[in-house]
Write a structure and sequence with these properties.
With about 950 residues, the chain is α+β, with helices and mostly antiparallel strands. The protein has 23 helices and 36 strands. The two termini are about 50 Å apart.
């Protein structure tokens, strides 16, 4: 039965309810074990206006309230969230359900951010009400977790742990019921593309081995996700751990299988005198190889990373956190970057490369820097750097020793947690500084001529395609042996165990926080298991390892600290469990049957100065060769044949993308055609923030773009956009959602703006391209374009959402785990093993809002009532100055060429070689530096027969015959 509690008005701040003598909060609180459960509901009248659930904070005087769930109600608000994102639509009323300890009245302080203070009486359970309230709390709590997961920009560790722990502890179902499938409705129009895509993909994947965690995921896909460290697997592993579904009961029963017997790559016969750099002769062929040639090139890349917080991806993405990968690797290897190195580096170092067995710097990578020294000054500098590293890490137990590896004395400095783990091996003038003992062994073997990268036929083939004379700034080579190593039993087994180790550390960290929040014992794992914060059997792994508490840190007993685990090749595997053996057998069969071979990848980058100060051009060539299409067949088949025909971009296009496509294995009936996408340099017709269903649709409609196909509609006819009328005399017809189509002369072009459609279509015509390709892209300098307004609005909204996600994470630590508000950022960054990033360009700070509530906010957040600051510039527009790109797939290789113009930050711009068109040989897809969408120059040749005349463009449309422009 619902009860009503009279608000205690004396403590209300700001005079919010000064004119309301009897503001009321409806609520119930029923005592119980291990928790009582309560529910309170208040309205916008009580809070002085519409309520934003993200600003509802609940506290109890004696910290007896736990695990609150906040749910807003109101039909108008629900519709507002669906249609326009609910930016100004607060909840009409809010219900907060929560658990609590004890049986005395609860002294509640609730902020919206206005303060509501009241006392909630606690009554005994009548046998039914507690169960009913608990069920309602769990429904609200699990739905809140789902909302946070969908809106979050980071691994959902807190929600995954809490829902799993509480489900086990309170014996409720941890997974929400799947919504029932919507029954077919008579007369519902068929959506051919979506339906066929769903059917085809299902047919193609049905017979593949499935991952045991998720039967819908093929084993090979799950294996690749493991290699890529996908968050889905981490969340699933954490959930499995908390639900006691792991392999803690298994034992090592099977020996380590042999590596897969991959077939040799079919490399063509090569000349014996292909130049290969000496450095490559000391690289194990199973290592990736990133050669910088000059030390100054390495410094250039390092500075570029530092310009963007150590994460190059942040130049484009708006991720809410940045792992300290570059800094961590340098500190672990004990390699410094100082002014002396920048000045004298090229005089001391003849060649330099980054090599490794993997790139798992976030957990602990097997990587190293390989140097070719010019003189003894380099060895002296390395020795001095290592001494300084030992001194810096003295408090963490740093130690130095000389170890014998492959008959050589090797310097090894380390700390017990592996934050410092650095081998320095010397072979003549070649020096390897690495985290991996295994790599040191192979370094010496390679130097003696055993399985070195430089001697392998596939690398010599790579050098025949990208010769040394190109003078690349950076050259990247990933051999077939490198990819084979990642799919070996050693890597697949240890990566899986690593992931479980990481999730155990995360679970233990969160369990300690939860126990502290409930004032429960949390000094040992046994205490946490007894308190049901961890499942029984937690931390017992078949390989004998497990998490240990070392003061305020949590380590893996075998691998060290998270982020600096022992490299995978250095971990001794003694055998496999039954489930690991089954998984390996199925993966081996799938890889050999479906993939057959692994293709090497090579990438080169050259850097040139442009005329404008601080601008430079990066010329990037990428090649997969030799190339076997069979493993990519399902999706590569959609790529049409190379074509020498292209569609002329319309005047005013700032973005133009063209691709040769066909139905392939998914849609065999779709014939080859050229699809093209253009975006005009126009101010978007809507400045509404892109949020919510209607506003997102309006954002798309406001984009001044067009999408077309030639000489057949191709995929356009399969899009679920039918119900269009008969074309008028100029080929116009109107379709769903206000979309317009114009067709004729083999063209089919779509746009939301019929005026734009009428303007651009007469300028679209097929012409012969300068070079054959399957994909062509041109993007102009967007920083000075009218279209920049659209980009700024899109990036800003994404930045606001990212900041809001981080704020929600910080508040959830406070509300769910009782972490003091000021300490939440440190705890969050420790959990994520990363630095929280304010994507608005400011920082995070605790701010007291009018009404008394304290909240984490961005210092750069827009002011109340402000949509976007006038001076806001999307990060992309700060550096991007244009790109031309092309891709072509030949019989035995895939070639990609990119020319990217960028603006460096003032302090980072250094001296560069004067720009001139380089000689790119077979990789010059554009013919002497021409752009991606450059038509071929016409030259009259009387001996050559006339080429087939291509069809004309669509005719111009008289102004008075054009369809009316759509309204917003």
């Amino acid at each position: 039965m619902s009860r009503t509690c009279l608000l205690s008005l004396a403590a209300l701040l700001g005079g919010l309810l000064s004119s309301v003598a009897h503001a009321r909060v409806e609520g119930d609180a029923i005592a119980g074990k291990p928790f009582g459960v309560a529910r309170v509901t208040f309205t916008s009248t009580d809070a002085g206006g519409p309520i934003d659930e993200s600003q509802v904070l609940l506290y109890e005087r004696d910290s007896r309230v736990h695990y609150p769930a906040v749910t807003g109600t109101g039909l108008g608000r629900a519709l507002g969230q669906l249609l326009d994102g609910g930016g100004n639509q607060g909840a009409a009323s809010v219900t907060v359900t929560f658990l609590f300890q004890g049986d005395t009245p609860l002294k509640i302080n609730l902020y919206t951010p206005q303060r509501l203070e009241f006392t909630l009486p606690v009554t005994a359970d009548d046998g039914k009400l507690h169960t009913r309230l608990l069920s309602g709390w769990w429904k609200d709590y699990s739905q809140q977790a789902l909302r946070l997961e969908e809106a979050g920009d980071h691994p959902q560790l807190v929600q995954t742990y809490l829902t799993s722990m509480l489900a086990q502890r309170l014996r409720v179902d941890a997974l929400p019921a799947e919504p029932a499938a919507r029954p077919p409705r008579e007369g519902r129009p068929e959506r051919p593309l979506l339906g066929k895509l769903r059917t085809k993909v299902g047919d193609l994947l049905r017979d593949q081995p499935r991952d045991v965690r998720d039967p819908a995921v093929p084993r090979t896909q799950a294996s690749l996700e493991l290699l890529l460290g996908m968050e889905r697997l981490r969340n699933e592993a954490l959930r499995e751990t908390m639900m006691a579904r792991g392999n803690s009961g298994e034992t090592i029963q099977f020996p380590i299988p042999k590596a897969l017997n991959w077939p040799e790559l079919p490399v063509p016969v090569l000349a014996k005198d292909i130049p290969v750099e000496p450095l490559a002769l000391h690289v194990p062929q199973e290592c990736f190889y990133v050669r910088f040639d000059k030390f100054s090139n390495y410094l250039w890349l390092n500075k570029l990373m530092e310009d963007y917080g150590g994460d190059i991806s942040s130049m484009i993405t708006l991720r809410g956190y940045i792992p300290p990968l570059n800094k961590r690797a340098r500190e672990q290897l004990a390699l410094e970057q100082n002014a002396l190195a920048e000045i004298f580096g090229n005089q001391v170092i003849a060649d330099v490369a980054l090599i490794g067995r993997d790139t798992y710097v976030n957990e602990g990578a097997a990587i190293g820097m390989l140097f070719q020294a010019r003189n003894d000054l380099f060895a002296n500098d390395i020795t001095a750097q290592r001494k300084r590293a030992l001194q810096r890490e003295k408090a963490n137990g740093s130690a130095a020793e000389t170890v014998k590896i492959a008959g050589h004395d090797v310097s090894f400095i380390s700390t017990p947690d592996n934050r410092l783990r650095s081998f320095h091996a010397v072979d003549g003038k070649f020096h390897l500084v690495t985290t991996s003992r295994s790599m040191v062994e192979r370094f010496y073997e390679a130097g003696e001529g055993k399985d070195s990268l430089g001697q392998s036929e596939e690398f010599r083939f790579a050098r025949s395609q990208m010769p040394l004379k190109r003078d690349d700034t950076i050259f990247v080579y990933m051999s077939s042996k490198f990819f084979q190593g990642l799919l070996s039993p050693q890597y697949q087994t240890e990566l899986s165990r690593r992931m479980k180790s990481v999730t155990d550390i995360e679970a233990l960290t969160l369990a300690r926080l939860a126990a502290h929040g409930e004032n429960a014992p949390a000094e040992t794992i046994e205490e946490l298991i007894d308190g049901s914060f961890l499942p029984k059997g937690f931390g017992r792994r078949p390989d004998g390892s497990g998490p240990i508490i070392a003061g305020d840190r949590i380590l893996d007993s075998r691998r060290g600290a998270r982020g600096t685990f022992i490299p995978v090749p250095d971990v001794e595997l003694k055998g496999l469990t039954e489930s690991e053996q089954i998984l390996h057998t199925e993966l081996a069969q799938a890889y050999i049957h479906d993939w057959k071979q692994l293709d090497p990848l090579m990438i080169s980058l050259r850097r040139f100065a442009l005329d404008k100060p601080g601008q430079e051009r990066l010329v990037i060539d990428g090649t997969i060769a030799p190339f076997d299409e069979s493993k990519y067949g399902t999706f590569a088949s959609i790529l049409g044949p190379p074509t020498t025909e292209m569609i002329t971009p319309a005047p005013g296009d700032v973005i133009n993308l063209q691709a040769s496509v066909r139905g392939g294995l998914l849609f065999p009936s779709v014939q080859p055609s050229t699809m093209f996408l253009g975006v005009q340099d126009m101010v978007p017709l809507s400045d509404l923030p892109p949020k919510g269903l209607l506003q997102t649709l309006q954002l798309i409609r406001s984009t001044p773009g067009y999408l077309g196909g030639w000489p057949k509609p191709g995929f356009l006819d399969a899009l679920p956009l039918g119900l269009g009328g008969t074309p008028d005399e100029y080929g116009f017809s109107k379709m769903l959602f206000g979309l317009w189509r114009r067709q004729g002369n083999g063209f089919s072009v779509l746009s939301f703006d019929p005026q734009l459609l009428a303007d651009v279509t007469p300028n679209l015509r097929p012409v012969e391209a300068a070079e054959p390709a399957q994909v062509r892209l041109h993007v102009s300098d967007l920083s000075q374009s009218k279209f920049a307004a659209w980009i700024n609005a899109t990036w800003f909204q994404r930045a606001v959402e990212t900041v809001a996600g981080n704020n929600r994470l910080l508040h959830s630590l406070n509300q769910q785990l009782h972490v003091p508000l000021e300490e939440c950022r440190g705890v969050a960054e420790d959990l994520l093993d990363a630095r929280l990033r304010c994507t608005l360009g400011g920082d995070y700070a605790v701010t007291e809002l009018p009404g008394g509530g304290k909240y984490w906010q961005s210092t750069a957040a827009p002011k109340s009532g402000e949509w976007m600051p006038e001076n806001y510039t999307a990060p992309l527009l700060e550096w991007f100055r244009g790109v031309d790109a092309s891709l072509i797939k030949l019989d035995d290789k895939v070639l990609a060429h990119v020319e990217l113009d960028m603006q460096r930050k003032p302090a980072a711009a250094g001296e560069l070689p004067k720009f001139e068109i380089p000689s790119i040989d077979v990789f010059n897809l554009f013919g002497g530096g021409q752009k991606a969408l450059q038509p071929k120059e016409k030259k009259d040749d009387p001996k050559k027969p006339a080429a087939e005349e291509l069809p004309p463009p669509l005719p111009p449309v008289p102004r008075d015959a054009r369809p009316k422009t759509r309204e917003f």
